[in-house]
Amino acid sequence: MSKVIVYLGPSLSIEKAKAILEADYRPPIRRGDLKKALKSGVDIVGIIDGTFFNDSPVAHKEILDVLKKGVTVVGGSSMGALRASELDVFGMVGVGRIYECYRSGRIEADDEVAVTYNPVTGEQISEPLVNVRYQLKAAEKDDVMTKKEKDALLSMAAGMHYPDRTYPNILKMSVEKGLLSSDKADSLLKYINEKPLNLKAEDAVAVLEKIKKISIS
């Protein structure tokens, strides 16, 4: 039976993950973690969440070294999507819509998937920009907001520092800047609370399902 290690954080709860795939679940990947994984005799590595910016993110070379040793590496949702879009030509397996967006160049910035979260509980505190895009696109489709309003909000949200991206903050700022009326902002927040969407979670599930297929093939 394949030994599977999955690096998971705020994108999906451990409980939901274990209901899909039995694996050794570890915290968001950081530099040096793959060396430890190799020592434990891993066959398949799943990268979903990882540390960003100044907090020692996993390096491309680390993943390449693991691939060269015959380990299957599957990525998607967050750091996994970013690294897979850069390393799929070397054999890393990319999964999900966020991976496809990075791969096609529709999104490029690391902070599209970056969030802040509670290090103890793993609970997500801020909202990744990819989720904001997904949520506002649905709001436009459901006639909760116009395309012009959606585009203006996305442009504003993209300019925010990633820890500040929460829906209440985004909507408060949109009113202050005159992008939305107070009533429209309230209606949009109600819509988001009633029909929440989470693209990172959906892609995290896709990563686990892909690993499950690989491990039993």
From TrEMBL:
Source organism of the structure: Methanocella paludicola (strain DSM 17711 / JCM 13418 / NBRC 101707 / SANAE)
Protein name: TfuA-like core domain-containing protein
Domain of life per record: Archaea
Domain TfuA-like core: 49-166
InterPro entries, per the entry: TfuA_core (IPR012924)
